[in-house]
Amino acid sequence: MKLVDFRQPARADEARAALKELGDSAAPIAGGTSMVFLPGNEEKVAVDLMRLGLDGIRRENGAFRVGATTRLAVLQKHHEAGWVLDRVAVHLASQQIRNMSTIGGNIARVFPWSDFAVAL
Questions:
Q1: How confident is the model at residue 113 (pLDDT cuts 50, 70, 90)?
Q2: CATH match for 2-48 among 3.30.200.20, 3.40.50.2000, 3.30.43.10, 3.30.70.20
Q3: Contact 50/71 with Cβ under 8 angstroms?
C-alpha cells in the first residue's frame, strides 16, 4: 500500500463524508502501527480517526466503557477498582507500540501483539 494523501477530520460526520467520497481508496487509521504490514502498491488516502473523540475510559452502569481509539498506554496507566486491563497492556509488545496502538486496532487486526480480544 502506498499513502498518497492524509486527512484528519475533526468530527464524525466529516470522517463519514471523507470515507464515502474516497470509497475503496480510503484507509481509515487510528494508531497506524499496522500500516507497514499492508501489502501491495495500491494508492490510498489515510483518514485519521484520532480526533473524533472515540477515546477514553469511563465507568458506566457498573462496567467500563473503552473508546475504540484509546491507546494501549492509556489502558496500561488506568487504575481503578475492578480494572484489570492495565495488567494485560503492560505485557503487550513494546512501550513504543503501546504509545501508538489503539484498542480498536488491536482487536480488529491480527498480529502477535493483538491480545486484547482474548482479554475482553
A1: low
A2: 3.30.43.10
A3: no
